[in-house]
Write a structure and sequence with these properties.
Blueprint: E1 2-4, E2 7-16, E3 19-27, E4 37-38, E5 40-43, H1 50-62, E6 68-80, E7 85-95, E8 108-114, H2 116-122, H3 126-140, H4 145-148, E9 150-151
Parallel strand pairs: 1-7, 2-7
Antiparallel strand pairs: 2-3, 2-5, 3-4, 3-8, 6-7, 6-9
Helix pairs in contact: 2-3
């Protein structure tokens, strides 16, 4: 069995009067795991850094460029029976403008801005729910460690 790290998970959020809202995307019928609600995900291309994949996938799946990007202190994982491997997934958080106009790719058929509680209820896997909780806790509690995790990129 091999261990790979060829995907990213990106939780998009925006600020509002109550705190933050997460953007969830509903997978299209022709996709793997149809109709589930998820964050932005994608495969890392050869020669691409994981955070570069995160920025590219945000743009491809939502038509947006984030205001800020952080690494989340959590790495998700799953077993892939297709190639008998363990897949490690670095997790990112990205802040969008509160008025961002979402333009979905064909990979998704709908989107929804949700409260952190609703997002955790709608996400399919425990690791994704854990990542959303970490982001909420760090951002809402103004945890100064979140600043240490910010990735500076050219906007």
């Amino acid at each position: 069995m091999k261990i790979t790290a060829n995907m990213v998970e990106v939780h998009l959020f925006r600020e509002n009067d109550e705190g933050i809202e997460f953007l969830l995307l509903k997978r299209s019928q022709g996709e793997l795991y149809p109709s589930i609600w998820q964050m932005v995900t994608g495969k890392i291309k050869d020669g691409e850094k994981a955070y570069e994949t995160a920025l590219r996938e945000i743009n491809e799946e939502t038509g947006q460029r984030p205001l800020r990007l952080w690494t989340v202190p959590n790495v998700n994982s799953f077993y892939s029976d297709r190639d008998d491997s363990i897949v490690l997934i670095p997790v990112f958080a990205a802040m969008l403008d509160a008025d961002a106009v979402i333009k979905l790719s064909e990979e998704h058929c709908d989107f929804k801005w949700t409260s952190p509680v609703e997002a955790r209820r709608m996400l399919a896997w425990e690791g994704q729910r854990k990542s959303a909780k970490i982001i909420e806790d760090y951002f809402m509690n103004k945890n100064h460690f979140f600043d240490l995790l910010e990735i500076k990129f050219r906007k």
